[in-house]
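Let us work through a complete example step by step.
Step 1: write down the sequence.
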Amino acid sequence: MALLARTGRPELCFQFLGIPELDHRLDTVSMRTFVDTPCGTDRTPNSAGSTTWPGRRVGVPYASPAIATDLAGLPPAYVTTMEFDPLRDEGITYALRLLEAGVTVELHSYPGTFHVRR
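Step 2: predict the structure and record it as tokens.
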């Protein structure tokens, strides 16, 4: 959504990325390491890559922001991750990339916690 906002619609002033799913590739150290956490072990393509984008095209930066090449000009972001969460590295890496692109970021990685999918 934030990448689309650079076109002027929708207008965003802030990104709240709570335990974000950002990469359709599902290939991070945390994704491979935390296979037995309460988050589950389903490693099929997630909503960030192929199940919610119109036409279900895998690898679209608007649906999988981790593959976007330019993050400049995005609104400030608040990113949270959990220590024992398969999605942890996606959130941390994206927050760092936002910072490198000049975006204001507040990152919180909560120690000893995990992501429970209901």
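Step 3: interpret the result. The beta strands are 15-18, 77-82, 105-110.
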